[in-house]
Structures are given as structure tokens and as C-alpha cells.
Amino acid sequence: MICLRHTVALNAYYIGNTEVTEALWLAVMPEWKINAWSSPNQPITDVSWCDCQMFLHRLDSITGLPFRLPTEAEWEYACRAGTYTLYYTGDGLSSNMRRNQTIARDYKAVSLKVGQTRPNAFGLYDMHGNVEEWCLDWYGPYSADEQTDPVGPAYGEYRVTRGGSHHTPDEYLRSANRMAMIPEDKHSLTGFRVVQSDEPLPSAT
Length: 205
Hints:
alpha/beta; single chain; about 200 residues; four-stranded mixed sheet; globular; three-stranded antiparallel sheet
């Protein structure tokens, strides 16, 4: 597949400097059951896209602010932080950002504690690896046209995920790499971070 570079304009938004942790998830969703081996400072995982919507709706009610998942365009802009290289660290990852980056059937024990590696120029942590992150958009082909706040197609079978995770090869952690999952799916490789913005998004095309 050939990916064409195109111009995208984004309205102002705030994005979490780390992935949503188990501690934050439980503060909002106290009835949720977490595995006994988990840690409050690691990202919440084993949550579907649909589970994330329940969390965000509850967070809206608690704070009175509009929270949502990042669009794919917002996520990539935040990850790149002004860079055009494969990763915000350049064209390679430092050793402390790598968490057994290989295809593995049986996972090794790795620390997923958030905020332990160098942030990007925007002060955001763990945009490469740690856990893959849900985005708002349905998965579909890019448009080559100039766009403002793109939100992807109006419907689809898969939701976009970004960032790659532990126990996946380096190429899946690139700033531009796109992945997708069935919205109801959930596993230990995927979590999310939140966006807060007062600007309404346009309708999907």
C-alpha cells in the first residue's frame, strides 16, 4: 500500500500525557474487576473500544468536561511532536523503550509502568510501544485531499489502533503505522489515552 502525504489541520485539543492507568480507570469505574497481578501505574488493558466509551461517558459526567478518544490524525500529530522520522526519537528506538519487541506466543514479564522513558517534545510518554491505543475512527483508506479534523469513514468493521505494543516488532511502533481491531475485541496488548476538546468534530465521511 502506498501512503500519500497530505495536509491536515487540527483544532485545539488536550491529550493525556500517559495512557489511562489502572488507578484512573478504577477511580472512574470502581465496579470493574482487575487481575490480581496488575499494577495501578500500568495502563489499563483488556478493554474494548466499547468499554472505553463507557469510561469516557462516566468521566464526562464526573468532570463536566467533554472527553473522547483521539482521532487517528490527532494521535499521529501528538506522537510525532513535530518530527518526520520513523519515531519521535529518530529512526530507531532506544533500548529502554523496547519491551521484548518480537513476535512471541508466550509473553515475557516486562514492566509497562507509564512515564518511565523519555517523553517527546510535547511531553507525552509511551507513544511508541507499551500498549497499542484505541482511536476514535473507523479504519479506512486515507484521503489525499487537504482536511480539517478528519474522522475517517462513517462506518466500518474495525476501529483504528495506533502506537504498537510490547511483544510486537519495532516496525509496528512507528509514528505512521496503522492498525485496526474489532471494536468488541480486548486483550493485554491494547489500552487507550483520552482527549479533551470543546471543539466539535465534523461528521464522518
